[in-house]
Specification:
alpha/beta, Rossmann fold
Length: 217
């Protein structure tokens, strides 16, 4: 019941933010996708209209059956050139081939994975040589607002399908040995003060980034 209610309300809850700039932020981020693409936590498919043409393939991981039902409808309506495969499993359990993706995408998804360091390690393992991670996530704010986020986080997780309100994604990426080569900090308009701090950007596993630098030196 909770899952169906969350899925039913999700698009409507995000609609003001989408109109106030989130949809444009998705478009800018996803314009950088290339090759074989994996999206983690595809939700109801709000990214589908923003993927560029010419991708080799698109794999969508979404464990929640109610969210996945809405995602399936959007996949059928989408005008996408590459084959699209929807994985009905959690990211931890999905059967995905290591070193096979040129781009991994997360948008408002890393907040819900139970084990963030483990998820980032798996992303690194799934990326092909030269592969990139594109991320757009709400994050912990500095100072008093961040402390308020942490106070609200336990209740928020119960109300928002396991969403961690106060995760610091850039710090977690660096701790997981990713190199962030591009980052934009902004606010998610029309979402409320505790959910508004956000980041978007591009990251590479440090091993791949070091190898690329060595090859061009």
């Amino acid at each position: 019941m909770a899952s169906r209610l969350h899925a039913a309300l999700y698009d409507a809850a995000l609609a003001p933010a989408e109109r106030a700039g989130l949809a444009e932020a998705r478009r800018r981020l996803l314009s950088r996708t290339r090759g074989r693409v994996l999206e983690i936590g595809a939700g109801t498919g709000l990214n589908l209209d923003h993927y560029p043409v010419g991708l080799a393939s698109l794999d969508l991981v979404e464990p929640d059956p109610a969210m996945r039902a809405k995602l399936g409808g959007r996949v059928r309506r989408a005008r996408l050139a590459p084959p699209v495969d929807v994985h009905a499993a959690s990211f931890e359990d999905a059967e995905l081939t290591p070193h096979s993706y040129d781009t991994v995408v997360t948008t408002l998804a890393l907040c819900t994975v139970p084990d963030l360091p483990g998820a980032l390690a798996r992303i690194a393992a799934l990326l092909a040589p030269g592969g990139q991670l594109l991320f757009l996530e709400h994050v912990r704010a500095p100072g008093l607002r961040g402390r308020l986020q942490s106070l609200a986080a336990p209740l928020w997780r119960r109300l928002a399908a396991g969403c961690h309100l106060d995760r610091d994604v850039p710090v977690a990426l660096r701790q997981a040995d990713f190199v962030i080569s591009d980052i934009e900090r902004f606010r998610l308009a029309r979402t409320g003060p505790l959910l508004a701090p956000a980041v978007a950007g591009l990251a590479w596993p440090r091993v791949a980034a070091t190898a690329a630098a060595t090859a061009t030196s």
